[in-house]
Amino acid sequence: MTIQRRTIFAAALASAALVATAAPVIAQSNYPAREVRWVIPWNAGGSNDIMARFLQPILEKEGLRVVIENVPGGTGAVGMGQVATARTDGYTIGNGTSSTLAIIAQGNVPLKNEQFDHIIRVSIDPLILVVPASSPFTTLEQFLDHMKANPGAVTIATPGANNINHIFAAMTARGAGVDYRHVPYPGGSRVVAELMGNQVQAGVLKPSETMEQIKAGDLRPLGVFENKRLDALPDVPTFAEKGIDVFPYGPVVQMAYIAAPAGLRPEVRETLTASFRAALTSQEFRDFAQTNGFIIDPLSGAELDAEVTNVAAALAEVAQHVFARN
């Protein structure tokens, strides 16, 4: 992010903070007395948006009515900036992700993890390399051979930059031993659209945002950025199977979690945690997770705080190596 962009973003955050603190927060004992604004800091149609909209009616059964608002930009930083500066009354929450943790850890945006109360983890998501169905490449080996034959020319798209998707795009090129062209977009749905329009040659995405297109035959998965195959895509090999280490600087994980402005009253935090835990552990959501290839592990409280800290540290370490400037 340029100095000018960071200055503009910082000014926007400061302005939002003034608005948020202009009126006192009125304590309420009947929380939630109205709908809760749930900020998804990515475009509509991406994995976080899909997951949120699936959870919305389940949460309502648990007494938590949410209104979903997509606020894309800055690899999640714009939307999460709005969450950080919102009133601490529990009526604004957002989707934190490893992607936003990565840019925070690198100091690319004026946000800190201390600005948030981490409520509960929603999902752990593997990532996959996908190509359009019209691509001539049907195996990971073929794609890597093409990269070797065309150094610096092959395009790999990701939702955002300097995040975990970007890391694995770089690891793909590292496996081929050549450079490549990184193409960032403001969300997974845009990457899917550009792939299907043959505007880019490959993308690094989650199964949950590509499964529909994979099943329809519009996208083709070539490899999984994990050490074992996914139950949802049993025929897709891992990079490890092909002798490519995508974790050379340590393990990194893509996860999504619910965050709120720091300073929630304990009873509000407990209500949010309980409502989301019930929804996440429902059979309906478990079936959805199995179909879409992600893991449910609803950490909360001190355990989630520690996990956020650990994931951020790991991402910062990996980013130092992958995105180091010459």
Which structural traits does this protein have?
D-Maltodextrin-Binding Protein, domain 2, globular, 2 domains, disordered N terminus, 11 helices, alpha/beta
What would you note in describing this structure?
- There is one protein chain.
- The protein folds into two domains: 3-125 and 252-322, Bordetella uptake gene, domain 1 (D-Maltodextrin-Binding Protein, domain 2), CATH 3.40.190.150; 128-242, D-Maltodextrin-Binding Protein, domain 2 (3-Layer(aba) Sandwich).
- The two termini are 17 Å apart.
- Helix content is 41%, strand content 18%.
- It has a five-stranded mixed β-sheet with strand order 2-1-3-10-4, sandwiched between helices.
- It is an alpha/beta fold.
- The protein has helices spanning 3-21, 47-61, 77-84, 98-105, 140-149, 164-176, 188-196, 211-216, 266-280, 283-292, 301-322, and strands at residues 36-40, 66-70, 92-97, 116-125, 128-132, 155-159, 181-185, 202-205, 219-224, 254-261.
Secondary-structure map:
Blueprint (H helix, E strand, L loop, with lengths): L2 H19 L14 E5 L6 H15 L4 E5 L6 H8 L7 E6 H8 L10 E10 L2 E5 L7 H10 L5 E5 L4 H13 L4 E5 L2 H9 L5 E4 L5 H6 L2 E6 L29 E8 L4 H15 L2 H10 L8 H22 L4
Parallel strand pairs: 1-2, 1-3, 6-7, 6-8
Antiparallel strand pairs: 3-10, 4-10, 5-8, 5-9
Helix pairs in contact: 1-3, 4-11, 5-6, 6-11
Q: Pairing-aware structural class of the strands and helices?
A: alpha/beta
- What is the string of helix and strand elements? HEHEHEHEEHEHEHEHEEHHH
The total number of structural domains is 2
Low-confidence stretches: 1-12, 14-28
CATH superfamily label of the largest domain: Bordetella uptake gene, domain 1
Please report the first level of CATH classification, the CATH class of the largest domain. Answer: Alpha Beta
Biggest sheet: strand arrangement? 2-1-3-10-4
Proportion of helical residues: 40-55%
Tell me the total number of β-strands: 10
| Strand percent estimate | 15-25%
Mean pLDDT: 90
- Classify the fold: give the CATH topology of the largest domain: D-Maltodextrin-Binding Protein, domain 2
- Inertia-based shape: globular
